[in-house]
Amino acid sequence: MALNGAQLGNLILSQSSARGIVGSEMPRFSLAMGMGIVESFLEMNKVNTIDTGVMTVGKGTGKMSGIIPSGLTQVVVPLLMGNGILGTRMKGLAEAVCYATAMHLNSANTVETTHSTVALGSGVGKVLNLIPSKMESRIMQKMSGQNYNGIMLNPLVRAFSMGFCQNIMATAIVNVVISGSPAPLIAGSPVPSGGSGVGKVL
Q: What is the secondary structure of the chain as a DSSP string?
């Protein structure tokens, strides 16, 4: 599987509808938000892992997990308020976008990594290099492409971008299984090895 902006947009739309946030503009808003989040995330993210196993060189495959919808919402809501986004529906919108984003990022991703000192083993790591201003710029670009605008749109997008980037880098966990051709046996056993891996969430 792989992350998909249109799928995330549909999730945002359905989660918003479930909270009574509806209207003729919501499909365009949801699609732009989903596309912007996923495209910027895929472009920016880097994965670093700490590995254990046996020598020598391998490739890892695995998953990213650990993004909690309620935790994401708790980060985003104060940022929205700090950016002047208030009103009775603000929290519901935040919950909808955060729940959909966490659900999609946790379930639809695949992680691919390379490992220079471990051929067979496992790696555990984090997601790095998420830059809020770049996510904000991509989402705003998608909003413009959908002819969606408004005086408070940029502050709203800025708050979501800051919250997502901060929370994902703080909470997301990457686990990969490393495969490759191990070094020749020494005294009948593989040579233990550790190290670090690099890669991306796809």
A: ----HHHHHHHHHHHHHHTT---TTHHHHHHHHHHHHHHHHHHH-EEEEEEEEESEEEEEEEEEE---HHHHHHHHHHHHHHTT--STTHHHHHHHHHHHHHHHHHHH--EEEEESS-SEEEEEEEEE---HHHHHHHHHHHHHHTT---TTHHHHHHHHHHHHHHHHHHH-EEEEEEEEEEPPPBTTBPPEEEEEEEEEE-
Tokens 């950016």 found at: 83
Helix (H) or strand (E) holding 56: strand 56-65
Length, in residues, of the chain: 202
At position 197, the amino acid (one-letter code) is G
Q: What is the pTM of this model?
A: 0.95
Domain that holds residue 192: 5-201
> CA-to-CA distance for 139 and 151, rounded, in angstroms?
15
pLDDT in tens, 122-169: 999 999 999 999 999 999 999 999 999 889 999 999 999 999 999 999
Say how many domains are in the chain: 1
Contact 57, 180 (CB under 8 A): yes
Other C-beta atoms lying within 10 Å of the C-beta of residue 50? 13
- In this predicted structure, the answer to whether residue 1 has a pLDDT above a threshold of 80 is no
Q: What is the mean pLDDT of residues 8-12?
A: 98
